[in-house]
Give the backbone structure.
Amino acid sequence: MTQEDSLTNGAVLTIEHGTVRYGDSRALDDVTCAFRPGQFVAVLGENGSGKTTLLKALLGLVPLDSGEVSILGTPLGQFKDWPDIAYVPQRLLSAGAVPVSVQETVQSAFVTRLGKSRVSRGQRDQRTSEALRAVGLEERRRDRLDSLSGGQQRRVLLAGALAKDPQVFMLDEPTAGVDADSQERMASIFRDLRDQGRTIILVTHELGSFTALASRIIVMQRGKVAYDGPPPTPDQLRDPVWHHSSDLHPPAGPAPIVEG
């Protein structure tokens, strides 16, 4: 078995030698990593380190200048089973956006890139109710999304991801502006999903309520993977290096690469 086969074998997502350039700078610089079923992977790093670019490159939302991405064993350009992938972006609804309700926002997650839905209306309604109940916002289902706080809007976006019932969750700063109780609720949801074998990739500045869930940590620095390995020990967690992105640096010594 070649090194490339070892990387991709059993992986739900892989990026190999991925490079993304913005002008003269490299937002991703020769990044190679794979994500497997049942992994909860936290991607850490300071602003501009390449965290969000990595997520978007895996989804094809930003083009690679070089390298390859595959999803569920299929090259990105040929992949069509998008209901198996849920993406919760960092950016929220803009003030000038078309007004939509909370329920409509969640149900929009069922629409594929071809403008179709794979589930019946009854199934959509049931999954929407269950997802909003899970994030604690079922009573706000008929409210306009832009009437909610930023933290509540993030919970609505998470509900949309949950309603799809995907194999892979890709989350960009989902806890920003979310209160502590709701973060604990999210942690409980993703603990269950991880235990079901779903893959969860979380981009964040700090782990917070998700500290005990992460099976793997990736630290991005200047577009490169500076660390890819197991979570820090309890003693290491006391070091602010793991909590504050402005002070975040990779651990001393060579970075171990985790494929499993």
Remarks:
- The first strand starts at residue 13 and ends at 22.
- The two ends are 16 Å apart (CA to CA).
- Strands lie at 13-22, 25-35, 40-44, 66-71, 74-75, 85-88, 168-172, 199-203, 216-221, 224-229.
- The helical segments are 3-8, 51-59, 102-107, 121-134, 150-164, 180-195, 234-237.
